[in-house]
Amino acid sequence: MDLLEDLESLKFEYGIQEEDYSWLYLQGRYRGLMIKACAHATFFCKLLHKLRVSLPEKLTTSGESLGETTITGDELKVGIIGGGHLGKQLAMTLLQLVPIPAESLRISTRRPETLDEFQKLGIQCFYHNANLVGWANVVFLCCLPSQLSHICVEIQPNLEEVCIVYSFVAAIPIPRLKLLLNHTNILRPQYQCVADFVNFWGTNKDITGALQDPAILQATCPYSSAGGIVLNIKWLEGVFYAILNICTAQGLPQVQVLQLLNELFLSVHAEDCEEGEANCPQFQLWDFISRFYVKSLPQKKFLPWFDLTTVQLSETPLSQHLTANAALQDHLTYLYRDFFGISLSKEHSSEDSVDSTS
């Protein structure tokens, strides 16, 4: 129910001159970008949470000893730097949809006193970026571009190699961020707004509520161009290689890594999957590293550490595999929607794959 439906004077567009009405689409675009950003961050955290549940079992079956740094099923620790509109919406979305327990989510902002609603929920809110980075497994940068250089200087000494920095600061390109942080484990989604923008992103729903709408959620799928906002699919490549880095850091041999990837990404099938699960796509090592490197890699050897900034800026063996394999795109879409509790028919998924390719 829209409480503002009959209250014209309280609507955003009230008082805007008629000649300026053409700019109102920017409001919808802003909201669409916010919804997509939060949805993709939620999907990534859900993957990491599921990975942390599966890793201990894989390490045990591989015969590897559980070291001090090994994941033992504890909760994913997420930090957010920035308590503005994006930081607040992201925190609430992660809290409700991953879901991340309040004690595993922390926010660092220059004005923690403005986050009283989150502190009442049990989330620690403070102003100490370095401490936040030293604690978290994933750090989301939700600050202004003008603040980023100072923040990078603060957090760089406490930034562990395995910590994933996920940047929403669109004005700062990946190479610049890599240089500022002296860090390679960085993800940064890039969005492009197309000319034929259709605003169905809503106005008064919060982000969590919007992602319960099947049409809106479908528009956030990585391969979907609905809604006029397109995600650069290189982000999805970065997600895959980030998972590989975690497995490498935990000492998981390549055979178990491959099994885990197939279980993690390809375990959800459409109800009408005509070919059957036996013929569904399966990952091979050469989908991620060159065939020449695979031949020189001993059977029990660990995979190399990947520079996520390079992955997102250049072609990888996974690039063509993700682009050309429609069945793989379908299964990743099934997984994405399943993570949000919404099923999808194969017919609709295939249509989205075709639309995004065109």
Automatic annotation (TrEMBL):
MF annotations from Gene Ontology: pyrroline-5-carboxylate reductase activity
Pfam families: F420_oxidored
InterPro entries tied to this protein: NAD(P)-bd_dom_sf (IPR036291), P5C_Rdtase_cat_N (IPR028939)
GO process annotations (BP): L-proline biosynthetic process
Annotated Pyrroline-5-carboxylate reductase catalytic N-terminal domain residues: 77-165
Transmembrane segments: none
Parts forming coiled coils: none
Keywords for this protein: Oxidoreductase
Domain of life: Eukaryota
Function: Probable oxidoreductase.
Homology family: Belongs to the pyrroline-5-carboxylate reductase family.
Protein name: NADP-dependent oxidoreductase domain-containing protein 1
